[in-house]
Write the structure tokens for this entry.
Amino acid sequence: MVVLLTAACGGHKEPSATLLVQLQVTPPAASVPAGLTQQLAATAVYENGHREDVSGQVAWSSTDEAVASVDGRGLVVTIAAGRTQLTATLLGKSAAASLVVTDAVLVSLELVPDRRQVPLGVAVTALLRGRFTDGTVVDLTSRASWSTPLGGLVLVTPGVARGAVKGPARLCARFQGMMASLDIEVTDAVAVALELAVARDLASLPKGARAAVVATADFTDGTRLDVTADVAWSSSAPAVATVEGGRVWGLELGSARLEATYQGQAAALAVTVSPAEVVALSVTPTLAMAPAGDDVPLTALATYSDGSIGDVTDLVTWSALDPRVVQLSNEEHEAGHAWGLVRGAQTVVTAQLPGTGLSATTLVVVGAPSIQSFRIDQYASVASRTAAAGDDIRLSATARFSDDETEDATELLHWESFSPGVALADPEIPGLIHAVAPGKSTIVVTLPGDPLVWMSVEVFVN
């Protein structure tokens, strides 16, 4: 039997034995262009239901150091195109993640802001997206070099800047020799009202349960912004209930007053922590389909003795009857995500709420992999995209799926012409283009349901 011995500092305490029952690595599968990094996390799951991030304690290894290496904290550095397996080992337990390193090259950068006008002291958040030659779009926010050249913004963290000086401002991001920028107007608007909204009734918050609170501020210029991350939170009885970053925790029976302050404005709400106990646990959906190599989110709901229902997805311990078929995440922000590993297989997934003896199950079926990126096969050949008026042009596409396999995906994509008077995309036969009149037309190919996955190609009619 493997045990961990833990002891508290600041006084004598008998060590307690806790069995390490499982080690998990997230994400369990990833595809990254060569030259980029990928952060992995290792989570230890103990017999008593406790979960702990042990990314810096496990022994990390890569089966092919020429493809990618991994440091002692789980940071993977990709080196060359290929496949490798990254393994974390701790106290006899191990877990692995598969990694595909592609030879895709960055072709463009795009900054996507949550707003283009911000009051003084308010933050603007932007995502940096990089598009690669294989069609993939990668979030490069944490990897880029950020700057605010006009001085109107002050950089807080990568992708987040706060309005500091009224007037025009600019936020810039650089990566691999490319730059993207966006202009932001910083106004002198100030907050005139603050409002708190909750997703559930806090008049009876069961002990141990959580609830989300959103803080919204009204400004003198008429804007209304979510300032949850910027307000100062306090509790009149922190032993009963605490609030931080918009998350309320019921700790002990009793009542407390929660207050938020922002730019001189204040708002409060009352919370009463009740002795309600969890009487039932359920998991939705009752039947889930996880694409091979991709994940599907599961939700755990607790029913309390007072009749209330709460989301306990990140409080339960998730596990699969057959971990070779599905891997579950117990990470705080990805708890309940089930990754499909074996196409066509299925397994029972269990959510167990520590300290209650309650558990619930669902069936996860691993289905067909989802398209991650695709390329138009005729992209590099002008001749294959040229025809005389009255003839047809046959285009096709090859996709990389979530299980890292590549297959023809022509019929899975939507084909559309920007100039149907020159070249018309057949509405019934994907990839078939009818040459109508001399000229040039852009054919846009998209993945139905995911506008971020797209490519375009030009066809020529003589």
Observations:
- Residues 1-17 have pLDDT under 50 and may be disordered.
- DSSP finds no helices and 49 strands in the chain.
- The first strand starts at residue 3 and ends at 6.
- The CA atoms of residues 31 and 100 lie 5 Å apart.
